[in-house]
Amino acid sequence: GENVEQHPSTLSVQEGDSAVIKCTYSDSASNYFPWYKQELGKGPQLIIDIRSNVGEKKDQRIAVTLNKTAKHFSLHITETQPEDSAVYFCAGYSGAGSYQLTFGKGTKLSVIP
Amino acid sequence: ETGVTQTPRHLVMGMTNKKSLKCEQHLGHNAMYWYKQSAKKPLELMFVYNFKEQTENNSVPSRFSPECPNSSHLFLHLHTLQPEDSALYLCASSQDQTSLTGELFFGEGSRLTVL
């Protein structure tokens, strides 16, 4: 089955700086990679996703890049703000045989004002 | 109400108790999920129901018993739990299981503590 590794587990940045979170996956058949943000006391919420036919996707201050050859994808947050502080999860989905997402362990991002 | 609602938000129970977690979604989705979230571990998928039929059971111990009476409601019945079952239990829904359009909608979770 799919295995998703996520790094780093914790990340602290100054407000206004950029943050990058990286994930690797094992199943070359995986074709869909979402990122979820979980704020304290809440459930995870989808913030951006990318499919394997696209190398990069951007939505305002967040972007995701995908390298299929190397089997890794990354979340980029620019001009970080205190409200970006949360736990971020990457996930992979192969859809082959088992229709379920495999999540990484999460990255706790702290944005220091 | 909108979205996915879970009750109770917090639950403390002894190992011999029987309790249930409830999830309700108001999104018109056909797939519902139970996930377990423990500290420093990935989200663990427990059960999936698609159009009220259980389609996934990820080797979950029988002390956890799911029930899906209709596409809008999902229960997780708990009995004779162990302290290591203490975790945040998240319910989620999606349009349906096989056409994963990209979004799982999660509830805020039920924080379970087993004494």
Structural features, described:
The complex is a heterodimer of chains A (113) and B (115). Chain A is mainly beta. Chain A is built from no helices and eleven strands. Chain A has strands spanning 4-7, 10-14, 19-25, 32-38, 45-51, 56-59, 62-67, 72-77, 86-92, 102-103, 107-112. In chain A, the strands form two sheets. In chain A, strands 2, 4, 5, 9, 10 and 11 form a six-stranded mixed sheet that branches. In chain A, strands 1-3-8-7-6 form a five-stranded antiparallel sheet, with no helix packed on it. The mean pLDDT of chain A is 92. Chain B is mainly β. Chain B has strands at 4-7, 10-13, 18-25, 31-37, 44-50, 53-57, 64-70, 73-79, 87-94, 105-106, 110-114. In chain B, the strands form two sheets. In chain B, strands 2, 4, 5, 6, 9, 10 and 11 form a seven-stranded mixed sheet that branches. Chain B has a four-stranded antiparallel sheet with strand order 1-3-8-7, with no helix packed on it. Chain B starts with a strand and ends with a strand. The model of chain B has no long low-confidence stretch (mean pLDDT 90). Classes of the chains: A mainly beta (113), B mainly beta (115). The A-B interface holds A 4, 9, 32, 34, 36, 41-46, 49, 89, 93, 95, 98-106 and B 4, 40-43, 45, 48, 55-56, 90, 92, 97-98, 100, 102-104, 106-109.
